[in-house]
Amino acid sequence: MKRLTVKAFRARKGERIVMVTAYDYVGAKLAEQAGIDAILVGDSLGTVVLGYGETVPVTLDEVVHHAKAVRRGAPETFVIGDLPFLSYATPERALAAAERLMKEARVDAVKLEGGEEVLDVVRTLVRAGVPVMGHLGLTPQTASQKGGYKAQGKTLEEARKMLLDASALVEAGVFALVLEMVPSALAGLVTERVPVPTIGIGSGAGTDGQVLVFHDLLGLFEDFKPRFVKRYLEGAELFRAALKSYAEDVRSGRFPGEEHAYSVKPEVIEKLKETL
Ligand code: KIV
Predict the structure, then answer these.
(1) What's the 262 CA to ligand 1 centre distance in angstroms?
(2) Contact at 8 Å (CB) between 195 and 170?
(3) Whose CA is nearest to atom 3 of ligand 1?
(4) What pTM was estimated for this model as a whole?
(5) Which ligand 1 atom is nearest residue 42's CA?
(6) How many angstroms separate the alpha carbon of residue 128 from the centre of ligand 1?
(7) 180 labelled catalytic
(8) 222-17-57 Cα angle (round to 5)
(9) Ligand 1 center–CA 211 separation, angstroms
């Protein structure tokens, strides 16, 4: 598999692009082996890996650290690094953050949340040669200002603003756009009207691509199952059962068996005992 270039990614407008999040070496390796088109090192890192409960506390150091592991696990896959909250509050900060993600973690592109309020930042990054993916709809870093984790763009005013934001972001230079929790009809309309691929999460089937959070699609959190997640594995159940079996085996002496151990010539141990 050959790693997509930004140009090739953009040219896949109209095709079904498959994206998943990953945060570590093994997750990235599995995603690459599965033939996933692109990996997002999302700041959902804060919720699914670091246990912060939200994305706001995630730091740039943390994203860089995890993105490095992802790059090592998926050297042939297009990787996007999320810019964490406030790391792109000014164009200067955004450039410094993107520099770290691209030079240290070797990501192919960065993603940031927001519409017209981030246009200056997008322009600065793109002018400097940083490929930028936009993110509209529910933007978790500012979810509280949007009334929490709920679908966005339901009123005429909000829907119109989303269309305007999408076009403005494209004009500012984004090569793709994530649409999160946007009603299907609106996501479809945005997709029709922008010349770059849209990647949906909770936004129906009308976007060019789809993205899901690794832990959600593998069912690693039993108590979190929003409507838009399809589970392809009951991971929590399976992992817990395996861990329980391991604990039972150790406690009962069933593990380790002969087949898990290494041998040494008996005379070596005999001689050793004589020296004791
Ligand atoms: O951080 C993340 O995982 C994301 C996706 C949900 C798009 O931004």
Answers:
(1) 45
(2) yes
(3) 42
(4) 0.96
(5) 1
(6) 24
(7) yes
(8) 50
(9) 8
> SS in 3 state form for 99-113?
HHHHHCCCCCEEECC
Q: Which residues of the chain have pLDDT under 50?
A: none
> In the block, which residue shows the tokens 């299907």?
184
**Residue 236's CB: how many other CB atoms inside 10 A?**
17
Residue 199 CA: nearest ligand 1 atom is 7
Contacts of residue 150, Cβ cutoff 8 Å, sequence gap at least 6: 138, 181
Two tokens, residue 80: 């996007």
Pairing of strands 198-201, 109-111: unpaired
Beta bridge partners of 21: 40
Ordered by where they begin, the domains of the chain are 6-237 (3.20.20.60)
Residue with tokens 């997002």: 40
Residue 256, classified by CB atoms within 10 Å of its CB into exposed (0-12), middle (13-18) or buried (19+), is: exposed
- Per-residue pLDDT tens digits for 214-273: 999 999 999 998 999 999 999 999 999 999 999 999 999 999 999 999 999 999 999 999
Provide the residue type at 15 as one letter: E
As given in the structure block, the two tokens for residue 57 are 């506390």
**What is the 92 CA–ligand 1 centroid distance (Å)?**
23
**Active site residue: 15, 116, 180, 270, which one?**
180
pLDDT at 148: 87
**Which residues surround ligand 1 with Cβ inside 6 Å?**
21, 40, 42-44, 82, 178, 180, 201, 211, 213
